[in-house]
Amino acid sequence: MAEVVVVVLFRAKPGRGADAEAAFAEAVPPTHAEEGCVAFAVHRVAGDADRFALIERWESREALDAHLATPHLHGLPGARGRALGRAAAAHRGGGPPPR
Asked: Hey, what CATH class is 4-93 in?
C-alpha cells in the first residue's frame, strides 16, 4: 500500500481560533496512537489566529479511513468543537483516489 498524505486548510469561526486550537490539541494524542498514523500535526497559519493547516501522513488508505471513523475525530469536545468552521480545502496524495 502507498502512504497517504493529507493537507487540510481550516478556518475557525471568527474569533474562535483559541477554542479551535484547544479542540485540535485534544484530538492529537489519540490520533498519534492510532495504527497506521505516521504523522498528524496542526499548525496555526502565521498572521491569522483563526486559520490552521492540518498535515497528516498515514501508512495506507485503510488507516486513513479508520481514522476518519474514530470517535475522537467526530466527537471534538462541546463548545470547543463548535468553534470549528469548515475546511477551506483538503488535499490527498498517494494511494487510490478518494471514494
From this structure: alpha beta
Q: Strand pairing partners for 51?
A: 11
Q: Which of 50, 31, 41 is nearest to 6 (CA)?
A: 41
Task: For residue 75, give the amino acid letter.
Answer: G
pLDDT digits (tens, 9 = 90+) for 46-63: 999 999 998 999 999 999
Q: How many whole angstroms separate alpha carbon 43 and alpha carbon 10?
A: 10
Nearest to 34 by CA among 5, 63, 75, 77: 63
Phi-psi region of 33 (alpha: psi -120 to 50; beta: other; left: phi over 0): alpha
